[in-house]
Design a protein that fits this description.
- InterPro entries: AAA+_ATPase, AAA_lid_NorR, CBS_dom, CBS_dom_sf, Homeodomain-like_sf, HTH_Fis, P-loop_NTPase, PAS.
- With 582 residues, this protein is an alpha/beta fold.
- Helices cover 45% and strands 18% of the residues.
């Protein structure tokens, strides 16, 4: 990078408070001036104030050894071939002259008048060489960046222009360096930053038709807080934007087909009480819609809180049955009360029996649906009796020998592995096949991320009406957090959390502050979910990263195949793999 030493001129680094002496001065006076001003040299001038030579400390020794006067020394020994340099010459030129001529100082002359002096020594020479090497390294680094880099000083003069800038804007370095940037780009971002002293981030523009560039410009300040320069970086995002547009087009095609598919499903399998875009949920709806009008038993499996009872109710509502929907939780009934709960009892059947007896759940659900939740917890003795009812469709109240015919549709549900229980002799195999004429499995909520927003809105509406709290707004970030939580408690947990958020909301505004702390601590957001959804550069980078990673996995790391599929050069792929650490 052409910074200080490569672009500064002699006038920027010269010393102007040099000491002048004249031919007729006394040697002691000259020497005293050198001592008092801490100088190793003085400039000897003639009567017309033109330089005659340079007198140094080593020359003092020569005079004393020779025993001659200062004026005699000037006449006999002073080198009259004084090497001078212009104030507009580069600092590098001055350095090179000093090294090649083996001199430690050069007077600076402008219009035959000395206006300063440039000094140096072996230490500085070594320093300059090292700095030169460092600057050459910087040049190589910046010239190999993917971004175009431009540095302007506080006057808007271009001080650096890398190779990428040359190719991007078709302006050669030799043509623009040391020139006012406004001559080439009247609306340059660097000029805006110099004027407003505010940085510019990721502004998209089209410098050449068909080429899109993301530009950023940053003001630079010295230690005194003074604006000294502006550096801008321009990234060619044409390829990325085209890829994004192509992906967006394909995404819209997929969304269109998805909507068409869901509309078709919804038209034929409409369960108003069930919300779901998830493929497994739609398939489950399709299955139960077909079986709902029949008398076939249905077994619903899935983890606790996945909505098994909601599905059972939906089956009942779609069945056309005129009887009641009756739900019973098998894990909540003491073993000795199972029979009386399911089949009922007559007066005096046992101590404490209600006078006139009690109707059982089977009888109450006759003509309708009996939902046996947590069927895996039913005692084996009771399983035998349930099997007999399913076979004969006849029940007997406890304490009675009178047979009661029942037309009860059975829908069972469990969160346990019944086949495993069968192997452990904890569940009857014949009952399993009676219950599982049709079996559906409901996925956990963490596998239904696309449904979480709709479910949340449903619960917000329900709880809002229930609690009498009007919801005025919901932050979009709330949905993002809810979508990315693991939901071990599934839909039931989600509903409870929504109720808490509504109750604790301020003025009906649902914000992140209303989300329980354990959810905020438990969310698992990846990089593309943390990014600002309106930051174009980050969105583009995220799409690039995910697309390249997916293709690399698809081709088992074969870069040549990956570059071909991505329709980019292999060198471009190498750069992006390094950039995204893939």
């Amino acid at each position: 990078m052409d910074i200080p030493e490569l672009t500064y001129k002699v006038k920027d680094i010269m010393t102007t408070d040099f000491i002048k002496v004249y031919e007729n001065d006394n040697i002691e006076d000259v020497f005293n001036k050198m001592i008092e001003s801490y100088r190793d040299e003085v400039l000897i001038m003639d009567a017309n104030d033109k330089i005659r030579g340079i007198f140094t400390r080593s020359d003092v020794t020569k005079i004393r050894n020779k025993g001659i006067s200062f004026k005699s020394f000037i006449g006999q020994f002073l080198n009259r071939n004084i090497i001078t340099i212009s104030s507009d010459a580069s600092a590098r030129e001055a350095r090179d002259i000093m090294i090649s001529k083996n001199i430690g100082r050069i007077p600076v002359v402008q219009q035959d008048k000395v206006i300063g002096i440039v000094t140096g020594n072996n230490i500085r020479d070594t320093f300059y060489v090292k700095i030169d090497e460092l600057f050459n390294l910087y040049n190589n680094v910046f010239d190999n960046l993917h971004e175009a880099v431009c540095i302007c000083d506080k006057e808007g003069i271009v001080r650096y222009w890398n190779k990428r800038a040359e190719s991007l804007y078709n302006v050669k370095r030799e043509a623009i360096v040391d020139q006012y940037i406004g001559k080439f780009f009247p609306n340059a971002a660097n000029l805006q930053v110099l004027k407003n002293k505010k940085r510019i981030n990721n502004v998209c523009h089209e410098p050449v038709k068909g080429k899109l560039v993301a530009l950023s410009a940053v003001p630079l300040y010295n230690s005194r807080g003074e604006l000294t320069a502006v550096v801008s970086t321009d990234r060619d995002i044409t390829e990325a934007v085209n890829l994004t547009n192509q992906l967006e087009y394909e995404k819209k095609k997929v969304e269109f087909l998805e909507r068409a598919y869901k509309n078709e499903i919804a038209a034929n399998y409409s369960f108003s009480s069930i919300i779901g875009k998830n493929k497994k949920i739609i398939e489950a709806i399709s299955v139960v819609q077909k079986v709902a009008p029949t008398s076939a038993s249905v077994l619903i499996t899935g983890k606790s809180g996945t909505g098994k009872e909601v599905f059972a109710k939906a089956i009942h509502e779609a069945s056309g049955r005129s009887g009641n929907f009756v739900a019973i939780n098998c894990s909540a009934i003491p073993e000795n009360l199972f029979e009386s709960e399911l089949f009922g009892y007559v007066e005096g059947a046992f101590t404490g029996a209600v006078k006139k007896g009690k109707i059982g759940k089977f009888e109450f659900a006759s003509g309708g649906t009996l939902f046996l939740d947590e069927i895996g917890d039913m005692p084996l003795e009771m399983q035998v009796k349930i099997l007999r009812v399913l076979q004969d469709r006849i029940i007997y109240r406890l304490g009675s020998e009178k047979a009661i015919t029942t037309d009860t549709r059975i829908v069972a549900a469990t969160n346990k592995d019944l086949k495993k229980l069968i192997q452990e002799n904890k569940f009857r195999e014949d009952l399993f096949y009676r219950l599982a004429v049709v079996q559906i499995e409901l996925p956990p909520l963490k596998e239904r991320k696309e449904d979480i927003k709709d479910l949340s809105n449903l619960f917000f509406e329900q709880v809002s009406k229930q609690e009498g709290i009007k919801i005025s707004s919901i932050d979009q970030s709330v949905y993002k957090i809810l979508t990315n939580y693991k939901w071990d408690g599934n839909i039931r947990e989600l509903k409870n959390v929504i109720q808490r958020m509504v109750v604790l909301s301020n003025d009906g505004k649902i914000t992140i502050d209303a989300i329980p702390e354990y959810i905020l601590e438990g969310i698992q957001l990846d990089e593309n979910e943390k990014i600002d959804e309106f930051d174009l550069e980050k969105v583009v980078e995220d799409i690039e990263r995910r697309t390249i990673k997916e293709v690399m996995n698809m081709v088992n790391g074969n870069k040549q195949q990956a570059a071909k599929i991505l329709n980019i050069k292999r060198t471009t792929l190498y750069y992006k793999l390094s950039k995204y650490e893939i």
